[in-house]
Design brief:
The chain is of the alpha/beta class. It is built from 7 helices and 5 strands.
């Protein structure tokens, strides 16, 4: 069975996007699509990194563990809020921390905002950063407008049937990319 890591990118008080990460985890588990874990950047509280992991002389055990979780995942979902048209510094920090771990890694993007556009402005900048470090960004997106009205605090959607219908295409596209990536691995 495939393994998916979900990065919950917000570290703000009263964050809303984490509800989407909780929902996606539940959806994947309930449908027995993969094993899944949430890598909550709010729990990690990483300092601002001054160097890529591979060049750090004494990385912390938490940094090494985080990098290993990305490396062994068959796919990654990044759930990010949109802050003034961009993504949070905590997310940029961990994207730039790694390099080899992102190489050809299928990465799906879910965005969230309190407004009607669902974080759609952040997709381009995040996608560009991921492309530059050679990640494989999945074409399907999962924007969530009015996130504060769409989920309760435990990640349960107010319209489960509607949210699940949207999640099917998003998760299936990630799973397809994960399968394709597995088939395309070079022979050792």
């Amino acid at each position: 069975m495939y393994h998916i890591s979900i990065i919950s990118a917000s570290v703000r008080i009263s964050r809303q996007s984490h509800k989407v990460a909780l929902y996606l985890k539940k959806y994947i588990v309930e449908n027995n699509l993969a094993t899944v874990e949430i890598l909550d950047l709010n729990e990690y509280q990483f300092p601002v990194f001054n160097e890529r992991l591979k060049f750090q002389t004494n990385p912390t055990p938490e940094v090494i563990a985080f990098a290993e979780k990305i490396k062994v995942a068959n796919g990654v979902i990044i759930v990010t809020p949109e802050y003034n048209g961009g993504y949070p510094a905590a997310l940029k920090n961990v994207v730039d921390l790694l390099y080899d771990e992102w190489h050809r890694k299928p990465v799906a993007i879910s965005t969230a905002s309190n407004g009607i556009f669902g974080g759609s402005q952040v997709i381009t900048s995040l996608q560009f950063s991921l492309w530059k470090i050679r990640a494989w960004t999945v074409p399907a997106m999962f924007p969530v407008p009015k996130v504060q009205e769409s989920f309760d605090d435990d990640g349960n959607p107010t319209d489960k049937a509607g949210m699940d219908k949207r999640a099917v295409g998003f998760i299936n596209e990630l799973l397809w990319c994960m399968q394709a990536s597995e088939k395309m691995k070079p022979v050792q």
